[in-house]
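Write out the bound-state structure for magnesium ion.
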Amino acid sequence: MLATLLSANIERIGIMGGTFDPIHNGHLVTAELAAYQYQLDKVIFVPSGNPPHKTKQQITKDEDRYIMTTLATIDNPKFDVSRIELEREGLSYAIDTVKGFKEVLGEIDIYFITGADAILEIFTWKEPEKLLTECKFIAATRPGYCLSKLEDGIYEEYQEQIFVLKIPGLAISSTDIRNRVANGRPIKYLLPPRVENYVNKRKLYI
Ligand code: ATP
Ligand code: MG
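---
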């Protein structure tokens, strides 16, 4: 996949990292609007391998999450999916992913796309200062999380590196979708129909 990007004259990419358990319309709207606003040539969705903050037992199998991410993104020419974190041993860290992309793609501009909750935790990630020099961050608004903290304190010196993207609020989360399935409540229109069908076919989350 990365080799394809190399030949395609790519200058700026977005990386949308997540557990994607399952991927939903909140992720897709965020990625689409980030690509538009920051003129990204591609947004690469990167399903996490072993996220440090979630144990392996808590999350759905890598291949199911990879397939759902592919099903959700397949009809958008700007979207791609990378297996970089699924194939790496050990815990998944954003810094290693960004470096991995740069090794193949050279010194292109990388925008790491997150929701408000994730950016507010960035200083708990591995080597945050280094990460903030290796790439820029697009922090999308998300209902329930307040981004005013980004204006001062520890964030002050990174004003040039972190951009806030206002998106129409979608109070959708994978946790809520999993709970809905477990309780027999509808999930239609919260995620792409193909992903909903896959969840049903594989009997995930019940
Ligand atoms: P979970 O409930 O399992 O944590 P999630 O819905 O938060 O799932 P993740 O895979 O954890 O989804 O999130 C991946 C990235 O997408 C994170 O940066 C997160 O902040 C962002 N994101 C998820 N849902 C939304 C949303 N509705 N609006 C904006 N950003 C979102
Ligand atoms: Mg989350």
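---
Residues 2-173 form a domain with the Rossmann fold fold (CATH 3.40.50.620).
The chain has a mean pLDDT of 94.
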